[in-house]
Amino acid sequence: MDIDIIELSERKARFVLSGVSASFANALRRSTLAEVPVLAIDDVNIYDNTSVLFDEQLALRLGLIPLKANAKNYNYPEECSCGGLGCASCQVSLTLSAEGPKIVHAGDMVSTDPDVRPADSSIPIVELKEKHKVVVEAVARLGTGRKHSKWQAGVAGGYKNMPILIIGDCDTCGKCVEVCPRKILKLEGNRVKVTEIIECSLCKLCEKTCDMNAIKVSDDPESFVMTFETSGNITASELAIEAAGSIKKRAGQLVEILETLG
Ligand code: SF4
Ligand code: SF4
Ligand SMILES: [Zn+2]
Fold first, then answer.
1. Which residue puts its alpha carbon closest to atom 8 of ligand 2?
2. pTM assigned to the model
3. Do 100 and 188 fall within a single domain?
4. Is there a domain that residue 137 lies in?
């Protein structure tokens, strides 16, 4: 297996994964969505809410705020020594107390663990008018996207086969350059050049428009352009590492089960 990193930022990773099957690429994508643990607000005690939002709407908004935290510091409630009753090892409390007029943002929440905080403090929660108040205590717990989308660490994961373009001798009419929606073909001297092959969408418009059959579009069945994005609760590289680790762990568990059967 080979990995060629194309782009790696705090929230986005793009790389070419070669020497793997489509099912492995899909397993990695699914793992980023469903198997990587993060913290999310799971319970909300509302002490006062005279805002325009119903209690349920307010709780829903709080639940969808991505929280930045080191998930390794927390247990799943169902696996915690407290038996799921709730303790400092399996939950963290964030309080919010605000009075209008003002727009309440995620950054207004105060956490009992300074390492747990909203991934983006500028996320608006509710606009309070004069004398409107919200006083809430939100309880965040560890979970995965398999249980609920609020624990989904990866928000946009996808892959496509690595495109292959073969361009033979042609009369440089330029039709393929015109028709390419990704603008990745250009005329250079007496030939057509591909500028950024990974941007090719495999639409084959260039192939169809060429009267000389000089251009052939195909894909590599064992090479994939993969893209992961996070909502900010963990970094993109942590997401990829955790997702791959989850596949490895589950494969190990399968081996153990098969060994006991043998
Ligand atoms: S459409 Fe065909 S002939 Fe025209 S420039 Fe493209 S490859 Fe060459
Ligand atoms: S297959 Fe589509 S995106 Fe790719 S080079 Fe041809 S026209 Fe452009
Ligand atoms: Zn606990």
1. 180
2. 0.81
3. no
4. yes
